[in-house]
Amino acid sequence: MNEFVQGERAVVDAVGETFDKVTPLIVEGPLPMPIFCSQESLRVFEPLLGTAPAGIDRYLLLEFSGVWPAKAWPGVDVPAVVREHVDAALAAVPRCRLQIVRQHRAQPEGVWLAIADLRHGGVRRWQLDSYETLLELDLVEALTAPVEGGAALWLTCTHSRRDRCCAKWGLPVQAALRDCAGDDAWQASHVGGHRFAPNVLLLPHGIMLGRVGPANVPEVFAAVASGGLPPLRFWRGRTCLAPHVQAAEILARQAELRLDFGAPDVVEDELEGAIRRVTLRFGEEVRTIRLQSRRLLPLAKSCGEEPVSLDGWAAALP
Questions:
Q1: I need a labelling partner for 20 at 20 to 30 A (CA). Which of 75, 98, 197, 312 fits?
Q2: Domain containing 82: what range?
Q3: In CATH, what number is assigned to the domain containing residue 221?
Q4: How far apart are alpha carbons 273 and 289 in whole angstroms?
């Protein structure tokens, strides 16, 4: 079932069992703004395609098991010299994003660090003795060197101090992923798009998934473990692609499931009036997708915010 399903029961089914567990709120007088932005996004059938963060070719993952403030990296308690070292590397390497991560354990041994290279499809990991050990690592060289191979990582956003949806819906999903993927499943700081929670980032594929309920996790994990891709109905897009190209890839794969699994190359990208014409190369196959932007119902982008006008992508009519 995809995100365009109709009816209240189908909306719940679209994210597995998660939204069955919402505690009703009893109020007197006019109903307030929805407590969870992700529920409101579901209620108006906001589409997922083309909503992933864009322009990211590499991820730097750094473990921090303590409290994450709303702005995770600026607020976590690491030595100032280590923060400066990491910030300098991020400034020197374009299209790189830092994610703070942690496991479901109170006292980790040392500090876990990883780099995911989306363009070369690899993950490299380090187990450091301390944060100060980071100073011995040339992060710029590590972030720019091609990385190939390595087991897939599953990052679930559980960043409650950034948005309440992320912990409410993300924690049960991360627990389910841990049962499937073991130590390759991590809690992650804000990944982008609270209203699509639960959000799962699959690396090194760079595929952002949204509205993945705990009941969906075995299906999603099994598809990837068997050498395939996650079910398309959960795709928000690949973070190495622009939003409209993310949408074009998803639409192309919906029409033809056998396309090459890697991120497509953009052959042509043209604007013809209100229509975006995107030609993509999947290995030896070339596909052209026609897209158009459409105005959605006003939505709150985060819990507690006022609704704003948003646009989404859809296949252009013939």
A1: 312
A2: 1-242
A3: 3.40.30.10
A4: 15
Of the candidates 208, 218, 137, 163, the one whose C-alpha atom is nearest the C-alpha of residue 39 is 163
pLDDT in tens, 194-203: 889 899 999 9
Phi-psi region at 80: left, alpha or beta (left = phi > 0; alpha = psi -120 to 50): alpha
The Cβ of residue 107 has, within 10 Å, a number of other Cβ atoms equal to: 5
pLDDT tops 80 at residue 13: no
Backbone angles phi, psi at 200, to 5 degrees: -125, 130
Say which residue, 112 or 69, is predicted with more confidence: 112
Give how many domains the chain has, as a whole number: 1
pLDDT at 142 over 50: yes
